[in-house]
Write a structure and sequence with these properties.
The protein is α+β, with helices and mostly antiparallel strands and 211 residues long. The model has no long low-confidence stretch (mean pLDDT 92). Helix content is 22%, strand content 35%. The radius of gyration is 21 Å and the shape is globular. InterPro entries: CoAse (IPR045121), NUDIX_hydrolase-like_dom_sf (IPR015797), NUDIX_hydrolase_dom (IPR000086).
């Protein structure tokens, strides 16, 4: 293969996460709404009938379908399906940083405003109930934080003889922060808490800059 062919193959390409085609990709919306003159964040409690994570607290969202225009579209579509509202009631949808997890998934979070929350009719097949928490509560309350350690464990037939150090190779261990927010007997944790923490950090950065 000559250099010109290599150049044609690589020029003008858009970078992506290596191996991302093998990742499950999801998009979620962190919903804001006005309640009693104050900004609230809306959460869902997943239906007990769901196969994955029944009863856990989450944001609206789901897997990106091949027919979806983009990940922003997915976040809005999933929100309309789960909360039973029209797309026209979701405004000011802005991206947060996307997340690559240790479990082979990529999460694309967004934040958006629900303009008429009184029209929400949760889909009972997916949503057990909804509740809201004042944004000010999270801004004044630090979450509990614990570490999760991920250790690499090669399979039994791993060719240790091919690497320097063999069975004594110093594999890097990874630690991940796991956040827990407590509100009126409810526990918000996992990916939902990580997205929430990221959102709050962005707001704090903006306020420190005087914005």
């Amino acid at each position: 293969m000559d250099l010109k062919h290599i150049q044609r193959q690589l020029e003008n390409r858009t970078r992506k996460i290596m191996g991302s085609e093998n990742f499950a990709q999801f998009s979620v919306l962190l919903p804001l709404l006005e309640k009693g003159g104050e900004t609230h964040i809306l959460f869902e409690v997943r239906s007990q009938n769901l196969r994955r994570q029944p009863g856990e607290i989450c944001f609206p969202g789901g897997r990106i379908d091949p027919d979806d225009q983009n990940d922003r579209y997915t976040a809005i579509r999933e929100t309309t399906e789960e909360l039973g509202i029209s797309e026209s009631y979701i405004e000011n949808v802005w991206p947060l940083d996307y997340m690559v997890t240790a479990f082979g998934t990529i999460i694309y979070p967004y934040v958006g405003l629900i303009t008429e929350p009184e029209r929400i009719i949760p889909n009972p097949t997916e949503v057990e109930e909804i509740f809201t928490v004042p944004l000010s509560y999270f801004q004044s309350t630090k979450p509990d934080c614990y570490k999760i350690n991920f250790n690499l464990q090669p399979e039994p037939n791993f060719p240790f003889n091919l690497i320097e150090g063999g069975k004594d190779y110093n594999w890097a261990a990874r630690k991940v922060d796991e956040y827990f927010y407590h509100y009126e007997g409810r526990v918000i944790w996992g990916l939902t808490a990580r997205i929430l923490t990221h959102f709050l950090e962005l707001l704090n950065q903006k306020s420190k800059r005087g914005g």
